[in-house]
Amino acid sequence: MAARSGQRGSTAVAASLAILLVLFVGITLYFFIAKVWWYPPAINDFGREIDAQFTRTFIITGIVFVASQLGLAWVVWRYRSNGGRAQYVEGNNTFEAVWTTAAIVLFVGLGIFGRTAWAQLHFNSIPQGAMVIEVTGKQFNWIFRYPGADGKFGSILPKYITESNPVGLDDRDPAGADDVVTLTLGVPLGREIELVERSQDVTHGFFVRELRLKQDALPGMLIPVHFHADVPGDYEIACTQLCGSGHHRMRATLKVMPEAEFEKWLANEKANQ
Amino acid sequence: MAAHASEVHHHAPPEGFLWKYIFSKDHKVIGIQYYLLAVVAVFTGMFLSLLMRIHLFWPNAHIPGMDGDFTPEKYLALMTMHGTIMVFMVLTTAPQAGFGNYFLPIQIGAADMAFPTLNMMSFWTTFISFACLIAAFFVEGGAPISGWTAYSPLSTLGSISGPGEGLGQTMWIISIAFFCAASLMGAINFITTLIDLRARGLTMMRLPLTCWAWFITAILSLLAFGVLLAAGILMLLDRLAGTSFFIPGGLVVSGVQQTGHTGGSPLLWQHLFWFFGHPEVYIAIVPGMGAASHVLSTFARKPVFGYRAMVYAMSAIGILGFMVWGHHMFVSGMSPYTGFAFSLMTMAIGVPSAIKTFNWLGTLWGGQIRFTAAMLYAIGFVTLFVSGGLSGLFLAQPSVDLYLHNTYFVPAHFHLVMGVAAIFGMFTGTYLWFPKVTGRKLNETLGKLHFWITLPGTYAIFMPMHWLGLAGAPRRYADSTAVSYLPALQPIQWFISIAAFITISAQILFLFNLIWSLKFGEKADENPWQATTLEWTIPSPPPFDNFGGHEPSVYRGPYEYGVPGYVDDYLPQHVEPGKLATGSA
C-alpha cells in the first residue's frame, strides 16, 4: 500500500530534505553577504542610490527567502508521516489577511521607495550647462561625437556614411566642421553629461557597470540619458542588447579625466581625426 | 451543466492504428501526444544548452557533427533555438496541453473535450510548428540568432544583419505563427469544456486546483497568443512583403544603406511581443501551481490550506500578468513614466505569489507527509518558486534593473521560476498520474534518485548565475571572457557547466524510468494514492469514454482528506454522503 511505503523511511527522507534546504539557504546567504562576486564601487551618487535600493531589496527579500525556505524545511521535518491522521484544517482567514497585508506593504512599499533613483535619471530635467555627447551604436562598435567649440552638432545623413565618416557627417553643414568623432567616451571629471543615444542598424545596449547605467540604443529614436562621474579612471562599456554575431565584442571605454586633461584629450582626438 | 448527460456518448471508439493513435480525437491520446512531443523537445533543448555550456567551458572544442568551428553565430543560434524550444514546445505544451488534455475532462467527469476534432487539429498544428522550427537548423544560413525574443530590426532585415537571419528567421516566425494558432484552438477548447461539461454537483468551488489552473491558463492563452499571432504576421510581412511595421528608415547595415523601409518602430515589436511574453510565463507556471497544490494536499493527507485564497491568487496573477509587460522594457527607451507604473504592478504580483507560498506551507503544516516521488517534486516546486520568484523583486524595480537588466541575473531568475519550477510541476504530475495513464507506477527508487540529483543540481546551475549578474556579466555572450572584467568570473562559468553536465545526465534516469516502468512497473489499481478526485474512480488506464457512458455526480470539494468522524482519511468526491463509513479509523 502507498500509505505504508510513504511511511517507511520517511524520517530519513524528511531529514535529508530539511538538511538540503538549510544548506542551500546557508550557502546562498554566505555568497550574498560575503560579497564574493559583487558589483564594483559606484562612481557617482546616482549609482550609490541604486546600491542602497539594492540593499533594501536584498534585506526584505532575504527575510522572506530565509523564512519561507526554513519554514518549508521545518514543516517537511516536523510533519513527516508517522502513520497517524493529519489535522483537519481548511484554512484561516486571519492568516490570509495578515500575510496579504504584509506582502502588500513590503513589496509595493519597496517599489515606491525605489522611485527616487529612477526619477533622478529620467524625470528630473538635465541640469543646465550639461555637456552633450552623442553615442551611435552599429554592428559592432560604439561611436561618440562631441559638438566642438560651437556647441552644435552638424547634420548627418545615412547616405554619407563611409568607413572614414562613420556617423555620416554632411560636409556642407558648417556646424559639423568642428565635430569630434571618437571611439572612446572621454568625459571631464564631475561634469554633468547628457548622452544622446542612437543606432545605425539594430538595437544595441549601452552599459557601464560603475555608472549603474544601462540604456538601449534603438534605430529611429534619439534617447537621452544623463550622468556624471566622480572618480577618474577607465571603465568598460559593454553591449547589453543582442545585436548579432559580434555582440560580445562590441565594447568601448569610458575615460573619466580631470577637466584640463580632458580638453587635451579632445584636442588630440580632433587632430587625429 | 447537468443537461448533457445523454450526450456523453457522442463518438464511438475509432478503429485502426492511424485513427486510434495518430489522428486520434480522444483527449487522452492527444494528451499523451503533447506530452511525448514535449519530452522530445525538452531533451533537444537540453542538448542545445549542453553544447552552449561546452562552448563557454571550452571555446575551441570541436563538436562531432558540427561543420567547422564553433563560431559565435552558432552559439547564438543554439541559444535562440534553446529558448524557443523550451518556452513554446515544452513549457507551453506539456503542463497545459499535455496534462490538461488528459486530465481536465476526467477530473470534471466528462467523456472528452468539448471539440474533439479541434483538439486533434490543435495537436497537429503544434506538430507542424515544431517540425518547422527544427527545420530552421538545416536551411541556408542556419537557425536564427536573434534570441527567442526576436527583437527587430535584427530579426527583420534579412541575412544582411547576421547569419541565420535569412530563411532561418523566416522559418522561426512561421513556426511561431502555427504555434499561436494551435494554442488558440486549445484555449477555446479548454474554456468551453470546463464551463459546459462539468459533472452534476461539480461547482466551480469544488473544482480541483489543477482544473482552475488549466482554466486560467487557457484564458491567458486566448488573450496572449492572438496578439503574438498578429505581431508575427506583421513581422513576416516586414521580411517578405516589404512593409515597415517594425523597421525604421535610414538604416545602414554592414555599410549598405537600407532604402526599402521607412517609418516603422522597433519598440512596437517589443510591446507586442512582451504583451504576449509576460502572460506566457504564467501560462508556463500556473499549471505547475495547480499540480503542486493538488499533490501537496494528496500526500500531506490534508485539505489545501485556503482553497478560495488559492483560486483568487491564481486569478489575480492572471489578471495582473497582463498589466506588467513593460517591466521587460525598462531600458528600451519607452516612456519612463509608464516604467514606474509597470514596476508597481509587477511588485503587486508578489502579493498573490506570497499568498500561494504561505498556503502551500499551511497545507503541509499539521500534515502526515508521505514522501512519494510526486511529493518530493511538489516540495521542490515550492522551494524553486520561492527562490526564483524573489529575485523577480529586484528586476521589477526600474532603478535596480538598470544594473541587472540583460545580465546573467535575468536567466538565473527566469530559469528557476518559469523554467525549472514548471518542469518540476511536470515531474510531479508525471509521478502522480503515470499509474492512471498506464496502469503501472513509475519506479519510486529511481524517481527519488532522480530528484536528489535534480534539485541540488538545478540550484548549482542557476544560483551562481545571480553572482555573475551582480558582477555585471551580460547574458547572450558567445564568449564569456569578452569584456575586461569577465575572465575573473570564469570559475563560476566552469562550475555551472560541470553542474549542468551532471544534472542533464541525470535526466536519463527519468527517461529510463518512463520506458522501464511502462513494462515492469508495479501494477496500479484504480486509486493507488488513496486520492479523492474523479480520475481515481475509473480504471487505470481509463476506457475510451472515461466513465463508461454514465456521468458521475459530485458531492463535495476536491481535497477532503483527514476529515474527522470517518473511517477513511479521504472522502472521494463522487461518493454519496450516506455511503461513507463513519467512525474512527
SSE blueprint:
The complex is a heterodimer of chains A (about 270) and B (about 575).
Chain A: H1 2-7, H2 10-33, H3 45-78, H4 93-113, H5 115-122, E1 131-138, E2 141-146, E3 180-182, E4 185-188, E5 193-199, E6 204-208, E7 213-217, E8 223-227, E9 233-239, E10 251-257, H6 259-272
Parallel strand pairs in A: 1-5, 4-10
Antiparallel strand pairs in A: 1-2, 2-3, 5-8, 6-7, 6-9, 9-10
Helix pairs in contact in A: 2-3, 3-4, 3-5
Chain B: H1 17-22, H2 27-57, H3 72-90, H4 93-107, H5 116-135, H6 167-196, H7 209-240, E1 251-253, E2 256-258, H8 266-300, H9 307-320, H10 336-364, H11 373-395, H12 398-404, H13 409-438, H14 444-470, H15 490-520
Antiparallel strand pairs in B: 1-2
Helix pairs in contact in B: 2-3, 2-4, 2-5, 2-15, 4-6, 4-7, 5-6, 6-7, 7-8, 7-9, 8-11, 8-13, 9-10, 10-11, 11-13, 11-14, 13-14, 14-15
Written overview of the protein:
- The complex is a heterodimer of chains A (273) and B (585).
- Chain A is of the alpha+beta class and 273 residues long.
- Chain A has helices spanning 2-7, 10-33, 45-78, 93-113, 115-122, 259-272, and strands at residues 131-138, 141-146, 180-182, 185-188, 193-199, 204-208, 213-217, 223-227, 233-239, 251-257.
- With 585 residues, chain B is mainly α.
- In chain B, a hairpin with a 2-residue loop joins strand 1 and strand 2.
- At the A-B interface, helix 1, helix 2, helix 3, helix 4 and helix 5 of A face helix 3, strand 1, helix 8, helix 9 and helix 10 of B.
Strand content of chain A: 15-25%
Structural class of chain A: alpha+beta
- Please tally the β strands of chain A and state the result: 10
Strands of the widest sheet of chain B, in order across it, are 1-2
Please give the radius of gyration of chain A in angstroms. Answer: 27 Å
Q: Count all strands of chain B and give the number.
A: 2
